[in-house]
What we know:
By secondary structure, the chain is mostly helical.
Amino acid sequence: MTHYDGDSFFRLSVIGLITLSVFLTALTIWHSWWIGRRRRLVTRILIALAALYLFTWLSPQIYYGYYLMIFDGLPLQIVTGAPPSPTSVAQLLTFQSNATLSDHGKGALGWLLIAASLIPARRRG
Length: 125
């Protein structure tokens, strides 16, 4: 069993972290599905992978905003770095990245995004 020693997620309020993470996960999955809902399967999967890529790149800023609310004295700053490489996103999907709850969660999000992309929109009529 993996222990997440030193993982900064465990320094945060558990309820707040879970709430924020569930909200961001649901929003990302729904938005990805909504964008691809009437497209071909391959396109929907590519949209799901793009959503994971953007989430991996940009979500640290949202989590830092949460840090700002619960920790006093943190400077207001941009924490997102350079975009991740396709290799690092592939490592997340195969759970070969860092042994952190954050990276394992991103890997799970990637698979949830792919699974959601398999659900086509219902046609009216």
